[in-house]
From TrEMBL:
Coiled coil: none annotated. It comes from Sphingobacterium litopenaei. Residues 79-167 form the Beta-mannosidase-like galactose-binding domain. Pfam families: DUF4982, Glyco_hydro2_C5, Glyco_hydro_2, Glyco_hydro_2_N2. Residues 215-311 form the Glycoside hydrolase family 2 immunoglobulin-like beta-sandwich domain. Residues 621-678 form the DUF4982 domain. Belongs to the glycosyl hydrolase 2 family. Transmembrane segments: none annotated. Residues 701-795 form the Glycoside hydrolase family domain. PANTHER family: BETA-GALACTOSIDASE (PTHR42732), BETA-MANNOSIDASE (PTHR42732:SF1). It comes from the Bacteria. This is DUF4982 domain-containing protein.
């Protein structure tokens, strides 16, 4: 009896022991801390016994060549075999049945070892991947994680010997090693899987809404979770969902029972209706937290938290709808690296918000990452700031076949699974060039398999004639469509240093001065601030004039390349790309404010938008043109309250005041509406002599933590005695700091671009520097700035501690980052203003090639009608469905970038105008005296001629597009119409 009693007692105790282990809730920790790094391959580095004590200590995310960011041109970024090692003892207050590693990415290939055992390999260089280390991990002893990385530009996939198309020296900055976060997940045997298909083959949680009613603020919420049972017996319990709003208030709780067999993988689905929904929107990053829990008979909880938002989308009629309203796409094609000097892409989470929110503050609503999938931190950041995303897989410049196409599909699959809960992801991009219909269909199948309910369109660049793609749009050009939306994916390649105001301001950079690019004139890539801002207006105007509301076929918008100066392919004088509307430290250029004026609206801009280009600090006697950007109808300019004139309006938004003589004091612009009512005013003041420095500390609102990755951004300005910034100051600033942080510095024009220098100049009176925290080192930091002849300044701050559990921690710098709600809910915008209607064409007749006339109005910009090259046949006549008033004609002519066409326009056989077209990036608008009629005839009245040389070449030497593939340059009597739209204005 004693023996039986003892057995019973031991059994009870063992059961209690098992219960206490199993009762621990799942947990995820940052694995970023206390890594060691060695540059170069080294034998036996994966082994437990290897001595890494002399290796460099680093905290992830950390690219081993991060200091080269902006110091070296992209094609000079260093490559090598680099080892990362971490010593790890598991905590005891977590479930240890299942242990997973989550790498947000590695560059390019990574081989992962645990305690000398090979665990797995990942090679695409951009996407997240997971590793199941449950069998190899030591629960109570020290573990060694070793990762061998290889960031060779010519890296080849081990199994196939194939290269990766997007491992490209032009656009994919090579920050090697482990430049993204690493996490460790502790889970029980019955658990919700991770959304990491590579290596793990799992899909995680999927949240989506159906029956969305924006006006009534309600929807049906579905929450799916893939669950695995890796215990040795069937399990049952409760699958529960909690929904919390942005303030953390529980707004819905629902659950259902589940059962799952041993060894089974199963998708559980729970649904409920949500009322009083706050919808995610542009500039309104409202997010909910959805907590899914798996509770089983052993009282084990596997808990997953998913941040998401709800919005309603549609893509039809050539337009994008968000929450039932038409929204013209306005934004940037930003390099996926989104890098900063001497740091690369591995910035603190708040700094990602700072940068991405600036896009929203310039009134962008969409960012297209180029040309590879962005990292998780930027995707989550766009959720918070309210910035929609066009999300690519991986590409370079063309469709591919074989293994390289399979690689792209795999990245798309992984990206969709990883990011399908992020409300800011609106568009999946299948290629940076057009892809075949067969390939487009394959991509749609992937989207429909893994994200069938997310309200996201999938397409590719170009796809102008695709019947399958759900959006398209060329690179630099204007496309219109009555079917799927056409969004230009990277317009305006011009470059300009922030340092150069104009030709009248030191250092007196002559606009356009710089070296040739591929033997061609490169003045577009060496602009100053004045001409860069003007070009921003010029380029956007072509999209704006064919915006939604201007006919049946419209442009859905365009994305300016790029937002911030980038350590990627360049065409100008510097060794990095300066196409940004902000510089590498995110200091705005004047083009930033140009977009702020033109883009402040869903389609039509707020008429109050107003900006004076440049500054008002010149030598006495200087005479220059002043430019004002306004969304109003009229602008007056005043010097010291004396009116000097009314602006000459062009390009809708640009008001020019030629030959203005500088006088010290104030330069004021006042804008008015069509009735003369004042809308807004802006003032520039002449600053006096530089007097003092001013430092401004910036950090995320969630605090500054010693996690080894958190950062501080400090701005330095040169001010006069009145506190005005001195816009022409170029003083050298000497910085000194004390405290537990690492200096990363800033950037300026000069030797090595001043990367990591502790002395660097202000440019246009301002600059910024970065400092990074050190792991587990806390305390006060003081930064001082000195400049000869100026009063110094200093600023101080405190680094807060983090809570560590055996070297693991929750990433405090990521937690509690606030959402941007500045633009408001955006659910009561004015309805789309219809400016003109398209008059339907019934049929057409032509002087030649009658069988091709439909191609000129078939809503396909890859086809055209062309005559036979003879002047007498260079005409086409369109018969409308009925007689109506005719006001404007939009026509896309072949060689639209380079050729001018003398044309006569007849309505019902009456000559109403003759014009010579100008070169465009797509459509030329012919304005007619309002005429009633039914027949519209376009006739070439003289030989077309070259109006602008089409010399610009792509990075590979390919000449930029100029219409259909046929070249009509030498056909003087040729009239070729790609598309025509005939309109009546309302």
């Amino acid at each position: 009896m004693r023996h039986i009693g003892l057995t019973y007692f031991l059994t009870v105790c063992f059961s209690f022991f098992v219960y206490t282990i199993y009762a621990q809730d799942s947990k995820v920790y940052s694995l970023n801390a206390e890594w060691r790094l060695h540059i170069g391959d080294i034998k036996d580095a994966e082994k437990e016994s290897f001595n890494d004590s002399i290796w460099k200590q680093v905290t992830l995310p950390h690219a081993w060549n991060e200091n080269e960011s902006f110091a070296k041109a992209i094609h000079e970024h260093s490559t090598n075999i680099v080892w990362y090692r971490k010593h790890l003892i598991l905590p005891t207050n977590v479930p240890l049945d299942k242990v997973f590693l989550e790498f947000e990415g590695a560059r390019q290939g990574a081989e992962v070892y645990l305690n000398g055992q090979f665990i797995g390999r990942h090679e695409n260089g951009v996407m997240a991947f997971g590793m199941d280390i449950s069998k190899a991990i030591k629960r109570t002893q020290k573990n060694i994680i070793a990762v061998r990385t290889d960031n060779s530009w010519s890296y080849r996939e081990k199994a196939t010997n194939s290269t990766f198309q997007w491992n490209d020296r032009n656009f994919n900055a090579n920050y090697g090693g482990l430049p993204k976060n690493v996490w460790i997940h502790f889970k029980p045997r019955v658990y919700q899987t991770l959304p990491l298909f590579s290596n793990l083959g799992t899909t995680g949680v999927y949240t989506y809404a159906k029956n969305i009613d924006v006006k009534k603020r309600k929807l049906d919420l579905f929450v799916e979770s893939q669950v695995k049972n890796e215990s040795n017996q069937a399990q049952s319990g409760k699958y529960s969902v909690e929904v919390r709003d942005a303030d953390g208030k529980l707004v819905k709780e629902f659950s259902q029972p589940y059962s799952i067999a041993s060894g089974q993988t199963k998708i559980l689905v729970a649904k409920a209706q949500l009322q009083n929904v706050n919808f995610w929107n542009w500039g309104y990053g409202y997010l909910y937290t959805i907590t899914t829990k798996i509770n089983n008979t052993a009282n084990t909880n596997d808990i997953v938290e998913t941040k998401t938002g709800f919005r309603k989308t549609a893509f039809s009629g050539g337009m994008v709808y968000l929450n039932d309203q038409v929204l013209m796409m306005k934004g940037y094609a930003q390099r996926t690296s989104n890098e900063w000097p001497a740091v690369g892409l591995s910035v603190a989470p708040w700094l990602s918000d700072f940068s991405n929110r600036l896009m929203v503050e310039s009134n962008a609503n969409l960012v297209r990452w180029m040309h590879v999938t962005p990292w998780k931190q930027d995707v989550e950041s766009c959720d918070r700031v309210g910035l929609m995303q066009m999300l690519p897989a991986g590409d370079s410049e063309k469709d591919v076949t074989g293994r390289r196409w399979e690689q792209r599909k795999e990245v798309m699959r992984d990206a969709i699974i990883y990011y399908r809960n992020n409300p800011s992801v609106l568009l999946y991009e299948s290629g940076n060039e057009s892809i075949s219909e067969e390939h487009m269909d394959e991509m749609k199948v992937i989207r429909d398999q893994y994200d069938p309910h997310g309200g996201r369109a999938i397409g590719s660049r170009e796809m102008l004639d695709s019947k399958i793609a759900e959006y398209g749009g060329e690179m630099l050009y204007i496309n219109k469509s009555a079917r799927h939306p056409m969004i230009a994916t990277e317009y305006m390649r011009d470059e300009a240093l922030r340092k150069y105001w104009d030709e009248y301001t030191y250092p007196y950079h002559k606009n356009g001065e710089g070296p040739l690019y591929k033997g061609n004139d490169a003045s577009d890539y060496n602009r100053n601030q004045d001409s860069f801002a003007i070009e921003a207006v010029n380029r956007w105007y072509e999209y704006y004039k064919v915006r939604p509301g201007t006919g049946d076929r419209v442009s859905s918008g365009g994305l300016n390349i790029i937002f911030s100066d980038s350590n990627t392919h360049f065409r100008g004088k510097e060794n990095y790309r300066r196409s940004g509307e902000v510089d590498a430290m995110r200091i705005p250029k004047d083009a930033f404010y140009a977009h702020q004026v033109m883009w402040n609206g869903w389609v039509e801009p707020d008429p109050k938008g107003l900006h004076i280009v440049g500054h008002w600090n010149y030598a006495e006697g200087t005479i220059k043109d002043v430019h004002v950007i306004s969304a109003g109808e009229k602008v007056d300019l005043f010097i010291n309250e004396k009116k000097i004139g009314e602006g000459q309006r062009s390009l809708e938004f640009l008001f020019n005041f030629p030959n203005v003589k500088f006088e010290k004091g104030t330069l004021k612009a006042i804008s008015y509406d069509a009735s003369g009512t004042k809308l807004n005013e802006k003032i520039l003041r002449t600053a006096s002599e530089p007097y003092r420095l001013k430092l401004t500390y910036q950090h995320g609102k969630n605090g500054l933590y010693a996690d080894g990755n958190d950062m501080v951004l400090v701005e330095v300005e040169v001010l006069d005695k009145e506190g005005n910034r001195c816009p022409t100051a170029t003083n050298m600033i000497d910085f000194k700091f004390i405290g537990p942080m690492e200096w990363k510095g800033g950037i300026a024009q000069g030797s090595n671009n001043f990367i990591l220098a502790e002395s660097l100049p202000v440019e246009a009176g301002v600059n910024r520097v970065l400092l990074r925290t050190l792991y587990n080192q806390t305390g006060e930091v003081k930064l001082t700035a000195h400049a000869n002849g100026l009063l110094s300044d200093e600023v101080s701050w405190k680094v807060e501690p983090i809570i560590i559990n055996n070297g693991l921690f929750e990433k405090s710098s990521k937690l509690n980052l606030p959402s941007n709600l500045d633009r408001g809910e955006g659910l009561s915008e004015s309805p789309l203003k219809v400016k003109r209607i398209t008059l339907p064409i019934k049929f057409a007749t032509a002087g030649a090639n009658q069988d091709k006339v439909v191609a000129s109005f078939d809503d396909n910009e890859l086809s055209d009608w062309v005559n036979d090259g003879k002047m007498q046949t260079a005409w086409i006549e369109y018969n409308l469905s009925k007689t109506d008033f005719i006001d404007e004609i939009d026509v896309k002519l072949n060689n639209f970038r380079s050729r001018a066409y003398p044309l006569e326009i007849y309505i019902d056989d009456k000559l109403v105008t003759d014009i010579v077209t100008k070169t465009t990036l797509g459509y030329y608008t012919i304005t007619l005296p309002r005429t009633k009629g039914q027949k519209v005839k376009i006739k070439l009245k003289g030989a077309s001629y070259t109006a602008q040389e089409n010399l610009h070449a792509e990075i590979g030497g390919k000449r930029l597009d100029d219409g259909v593939s046929r070249n009509d340059a030498n056909a003087k009597g040729t009239l070729s119409i790609i598309e025509i739209d005939i309109h009546k204005k309302l």
